[in-house]
Amino acid sequence: METRMCCLECGEALRGRIDKKFCNETCRNQFHNRLNVEEGRVMREINRGLRRNRKILFELMESGKRTIQRSWLLRRGFDFELITAVHEKQAGNPCFLCYDFGYIPLDENRFQVIRLPEI
Question: What is the pTM of this model?
Answer without folding.
Answer: 0.70
